[in-house]
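Box 4.2: Ligand-aware structure prediction
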Amino acid sequence: MPEEVVGKFEITMLKVLDVDGNCDETLKPRLSDEVIKKLFELMILSRTFDDIAVKLQREGRIGTYAPGRGQEATQVASAYALNDSDWFFPAFRENAVYITKNFPLEMLYEYWGGDERGEKIPDDFNAFTVAIPVGTQIPHAVGFAWACKFKGDKRAVLVYFGDGATSRGDFHEGLNFAGVFKLPVVFLCQNNQWAISLPDKRQTASKTLAQKAIAYGFEGKQVDGNDVFSVYKAVKEALDKARSGDGPTLIECVTYRMGNHTTSDDASRYRTKEEIEEWAKRDPIDRLRKYMKRAGLWNEEYEKRITVEAMEKVQKAVEKAESVQKPEVKDLFEWTYSDVPQRLREQQEELNLSLKERE
Amino acid sequence: MVQLTIVQAVKFALEQEMERDSDVLVLGEDVGINGGVFRATEGLFEKFGDNRVVDTPLSETGIVGAAIGLALYGLRPVAEIQFDGFLYSAFDQLISHAGRIRNRSRGRFHVPLVIRVPYGGGIRAPEHHSDSPESYLVHTPGIKVVTPSTPYDTKGLLISAIRDPDPVIFLEPKRIYRAIREDVPEEDYVVPLGEAKTIRAGNDVTLISWGAMVRQAMAAAEKLKGKIDVEVIDLRSLSPIDVETVTKSVAKTGRVVTVHEAPRTCGLGAEITALINERVFLSLKAPVERVTGFDVPFPLYKLEDYYLPSINRIIKGIEKVASF
Ligand SMILES: Cc1ncc(C[n+]2csc(CCOP(=O)(O)OP(=O)(O)O)c2C)c(N)n1
Ligand SMILES: [Mg+2]
């Protein structure tokens, strides 16, 4: 008996807008001019937020910060594809996702400024908190999607993670559950080429990250992560599919982390200037701008206006964040249990006493 | 002699052991070309190559599990876990295997691996970058746990850890990685595992601490100079614990304060207290006092000064036992 082929797979890469802003109209998602401008403005706002965050860290006004520069198309377009009833689960670099969903900017600064109150997600905001341990949010999103299915709620769950996260057990275990239970979840891998100093080619021997979905019995695809149209289209379709009960999708957005890993990192130790310059040509904001110019949606005045508006919003947020009173002793003790155990109360009193005596 | 900080002493020890023994290899996230996020392995990649200084995929379970396999074969893997809070996902490998293999195989197999973990708070870090996980580890049979508080001890203890036939978790107090610089011999020497160090002699109160808290403990002792005569013990080896140094001191002073960053409940202070009760109960003149982190997750940095044992809180603890 000869060996027979029992499975054959292929992975596609979606590209709608090329580096010069030329658009494949047959693939372009249906988006009004207003929405295209909105996406552009959100990218500008996100980058402004990001630049200011890096500056604030340098000045000692916030703590360690993970910049999102270069990943705006992936983050903004994917978040924009969410319905009002959908949820997202972030990793730690998804500020532009929060911003797109209209999260209070000042809370992001509070969070990165070392204050848990910045993570008290408003009740009507459908997102979970930041996940610092890489990949750990993936099974949470899976369970959340399972609950949506259990309850018969037509929602999809979008979970963000990086290329590095695909090496973690949490990723594989989460995807396996999602496949087995056919859950309404979309796995969005931002392959920004690097996990701190490890390039994605050393993270895995797989040709793509998208193909890892195949092993778990569902669709995986690559998209050009620096193209808002590609990302929007792929994520929208995957979310629709999830909501209609057709199971999970893994989308690998191929993008680039233009900045340092975090403000504590110095990427020049491990990657070349040439590489950075190469990717700079594929900057997601420049690309959409080129398209908009050609489509008559952009002029310098417009850009100037939205840039100023973005800066004003960000400045206001910084002021707000910095005018918040320092958290109090009780903030340390209040939130660990539904009701504070007696021993913990005693610890709180002990701390209060020692602080008082110092005065 | 060379003047080194703690993080430089880590690198120095690794380098010397790698030169001495070609079976020693370093693995972990970003330990290669980047030299580790704290630069504890800086230059080793260039010197020893990517066969012995290995950037692994982002997988703590993989790192610790594979280190077990490497060690089973007779190599001496020194794994780095980037931060305290990321060790937890490797606990299955640590607790279910690293700590049990010698016993399970009745000595046929053993795992001479070292896991280096920068630990502790006070550096304004994001969540999960400030934990003190020593109690979980000390509670686990079969693994040894050490933490230095000086550059000299760092080198000597790390060399001991690498040469030790059992798994050793080497906790590095990241807050003081660069805080102190002192003379470290260039030649080979070891600080044996299992030995505490009395770093300040005193007759009234025994103050026991480890890692970054040792400096706080010393500062508190100095502030009380002339009022209360405080003996300070740097425990260094958390498992096995140096029972003799602790009990001898307590037999002399009869009053004890333990200081650690980890939460209070079931922290190592509790074990030390139990040990003292068992061995030198009749010498005690006051209940043993604990100055610790609180029973809450380590907070983001705006609250971290409240969480961490302050010099003031340590002084209060000392005064409490002294005036009992
Ligand atoms: C479990 C775990 N291990 C290590 C780290 C330290 N760390 C933070 S981010 C990072 C790299 C993550 O790479 P990737 O998943 O590609 O996300 P990116 O940083 O590129 O957004 C590492 C190693 C961590 N946060 N969690
Ligand atoms: Mg990455």
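In the box above, the bound molecule is magnesium ion. Residues A 93, 132-134, 161-165, 192, 194-196, 257, 261; B 29, 58, 60, 82, 86 surround thiamine diphosphate (ligand 1) (CB under 6 Å).
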